[in-house]
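Most newcomers find our protein records easier to grasp once they have seen one. A record pairs a protein's sequence with a compact description of its fold. An example says more than a description, so a record of this kind follows:
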Amino acid sequence: MFTPLTVALAVAAIALAAWCGWAAYRDQPTKDWHFIGMAVVTLLGLAQLVVGIIRLATGGEAAEGTAIFVAYLAAVAACIPVVGLISLTERTRWGSLTVAAGALVLAVLQARLHEIWGGGGPGGA
């Protein structure tokens, strides 16, 4: 995988989690600017999906298997849109908390995706 993109996505996801967690703490639902943040993180996730597919298509191999790698790529791309949709249906502090939790899950998915590819070792950077 492309390590700088992996790190950027994980950091952006943690920042989104903190931002939405702060909104939940203040008893606020997700607002328009939270959705802008979710869009940025989602675009990074889609970029990660494209990079992963290109790596596989050009002969790269995930250390722990292609199927699990593709499953994690799909989860990375879908995580924030799913919690964003849930936060639209739950217009209370719990919607913000849902996004915060989903963003933390995304950061963990990024770390695991990096491990599945090979942890930045030979062919992994």
